Amino acid sequence: MNKKLVSSIFMLVLAVMLVSPVFAAFETWGDMVTEMAGHIDEAWTLYAAGNVKGAKAKVDTAYYGYYEKFGFEKTVMSQISGARAAEVEYQFSLVKKAMTAGAPGAEVREGLDLLISLLRADADRLDGKKESALAVFLSSLLIIVREGFEAILIVGAIIAYLLKSGNKNSVKPVYIGSLVALAASVLMAYILNLLAGAATGQNQEIIEGATMLLAVVVLFYVSNWMVSKAEAEAWSGYIEGKVKAGISKGSVFSLAFAAFLAVFREGAEVILFYQALIANTKTFMNMIWVGLAVGAVLLVGVYIVIRVLSLKIPLKPFFLGTSVLLFIMSISFIGNGIKELQEGNVVSVSPVPFVSSVDILGIYPTLETLIPQMILLIVSAAVFVLQLKKGSNPGRSAQGKNI
């Protein structure tokens, strides 16, 4: 791989991370919440006067124009928890849903007060934290490891699959897809910074949601293909020979595109996370770069482990394990993708009180996210069983085809 190209993209990433046009506009998070509360109170005034559209627009101003634009959401995710950020985000959506349904004024006021109290509690918690070198380091490390882990798992699994199946020549397009995604992430982060604001902030959510849902389709397709090859190998030397002889151009494109989406999905978000961290770090700026470097080394370690294990694990369990991993990723992605569309006002929010958010698995307490995940889980299980049954019939397997 061209080292000069990789270095150029890395420097471009750093440049976009440092050139932030929107952060550091408030001395404290409390100051920001005070201003947000003013817009939320205006929303109540408009709603009480019968102006539902204007009231919802004011709630959007508080969300897109402050919570997202100034990195409040991302700071909560990195320094408190992803589940807490999801709780606050859903409260924004629930208040707007109540307004749309024409809920009684007291109910809407209660929802707005709850929203302000959640924001105030997070601001107090963040403002009360004394900046330390260790805290900055851990925040930086957590961002790159958490956001990069899914991408490195998918790219590593695809590369290991190609090497394991004797298609070393097809590895280069996957690397190229990952690098193109990194460059595209830089461009997307720059565009999202330009768009950040009350009027256009929801575009970011819609773009992220659409990207994730596209990734679900590609990952499901690729994982289904892998498990079919695993069974073919297990029961027929004929198919193994076909796989080792080379995979089709369409297959290479699918794998490279899956790698692209895995990196692109996380890339722009990582840049935006680091922008928030840089803007809110006053003393220990160097620890951000130390955390980033250590996190990158850890991700490389994960990649190496995948490569080593792929050589030691027999072909069939390796293919099956890789397929299951990608199935799980697709279920996580569909939850996160729909949540982004909820934040973009594209999909409604129907709470499920007895379910808690599990951010890392893309599980959120709404019917709109849980039902598609259940459907995808059932379909994935059915496909898996179907492929196993096909594998138990050597005659049918011998007639398999490459995609």
Automatic annotation (TrEMBL):
InterPro entries: FTR1/Fip1/EfeU. Keywords: Membrane, Signal, Transmembrane, Transmembrane helix. Pfam families: FTR1 (PF03239). One of its GO terms (molecular function) is ferrous iron transmembrane transporter activity. Residues 1-24 form the signal peptide. GO terms for cellular component: high-affinity iron permease complex. It is found in: Membrane. It is a multi-pass membrane protein. The chain crosses the membrane at residues 134-163, 175-200, 206-227, 247-264, 284-306, 318-338, 370-388. Belongs to the oxidase-dependent Fe transporter (OFeT) (TC 9.A.10.1) family. This is High-affinity iron permease. It comes from Leadbettera azotonutricia (strain ATCC BAA-888 / DSM 13862 / ZAS-9) (Treponema azotonutricium).
